[in-house]
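Entry 14. Ran structure prediction on the chain below.
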Amino acid sequence: MTRTLRGAIALAGATALCLGAVATSGATQSASAAQGEVRIGLLLPESKTTRYEKFDRPYIEAKIKELAPDAQIDYYNAAESATTQQQQVNTALAKGDKVLILDAVDAKSIQSSVEKARNAGVKVVAYDRLAQGPVDAYVSYDNRKVGELQGKALLDALGDKAESGQIVMHNGSPTDPNAAEFKAGAHSVLDGKVKIGKEYDTPNWDPNNANQQMSGAISALGKDKIVGVYSANDGLAAGISTALKAAGMNVPLTGQDAQLDAIQRILLGTQTITVEKPYKPEADIAATMAVNLAEGKELPADLTPTTVTSGSGEKVPANLLTPVVVDKTNIKDTVVKDGLYTVQEICTPTYAAACKEAGLQ
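Output, structure tokens:
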């Protein structure tokens, strides 16, 4: 072998070693980058309730980007379908999401998907509704307290009429664990204080179902016998108020979620109260939990100050916020102050006189 050939072989070997080292270094850096990537799946249950697209989604996404500017967010809306949401979890896992922020359509049926996420090493933050299965953290409001506040507001509005007639109760979806808590909280206040003439659980929180239920209750009980209506949220209240109006009735009516149309009904006197659960604090906490978990950090104690037990028996670190009753007297100090709506959004020409009377204009 000539000196020249030996030199060429040596140079080729050195080059190969160098390129191999670079390739190994690049692969290590890529793996490291992938490992440090913040990729979060956001799974919301539906869009009929205005809060999800108007408030929850933008607030959560903004907070994630504030905490992790390069984060990848994959968004899914299940359109009220538990099956769709299960498929969306599969998609999120296939995409490589490290954390799921999950507001379950059906808290029970989603358990297998939560277990699948755990087996894949993916963390799950239950948002607003406590999904069954090995959830890593949960943020919501004190939902039993919501029902208690609704029940008390209804009794206060009824006054002496509580003993002279009947109420109709419209609870939420039987697949939503929050609905059971609202219902339990309301019953703890109302039972023994007023007669419940009709009571309904309303599938999918559907306002059309609530409208039909209310029309049926009016026919069955007689409109002169109904003194008030418990509605678990504002979506149901919208359907209920339409049925009441068609029957020429105006009785105390509760709600929840502080939807814009509910605030306007309160101004007109066709809905008595709503319960505000300020979305931004809840969304900010969920986003903070998710980013911490995506970065491999332990959740600090102040982020999960309590523990709750899910329907499947898991003990889940949780943060439960305090809801607020909104009536005609405190609209400016609640939903306006909290940035849900401006006075201009609330006080369109149809509501101008009522706004002036309530001190909004």
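Residues 1-35 have pLDDT under 50 and may be disordered. Will compare against last week's run tomorrow.
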